[in-house]
Here is the input.
Amino acid sequence: MKDKKEAKEEISLVVIKPSAVRRKLVGKILNEFEEDDFELVDIKMKRLTREEAEYLYDVHKGKDFFEPLIEYMISGPVVAFLLKGKDAIKRVREKIGATDPKEAKPGTVRAKYGLNKRQNAVHAVDSQERLKHEIKVFFDGYV
Here is the structure.
């Protein structure tokens, strides 16, 4: 009898934020995940509309940082990509680190490439429910 549930193959969504794109970190950030044995499933660069950014961050609507976050996310292009792997959502969250790069564990994406809480290099989904919601902004037909 197994005590632990077997890890399941799943998809995760990661978005490289505008300041990281401007700083030419796309390749380095993608490499972080490829070296950790994630499979790159799809990738897209786009400039978010205000409506798309508000949809992406709808869980924060009404908070004091919501409007500055939206302004930041529409300030330049983002790069969104889908990764496939065992327990991908959980593993991606561990790999990116805490929201504040100063609090992120050394070696995590945000610790390496983040500037502050808003310009922290990447956004990633934290659950299957958020994946189903947020993926609509970038990709169709994966979940």
Summary: Residues 26-34 form the longest helix (9 residues). The mean pLDDT is 94. The chain has seven helices and four strands. Helices lie at 18-22, 26-34, 50-56, 66-73, 88-96, 109-113, 128-134.
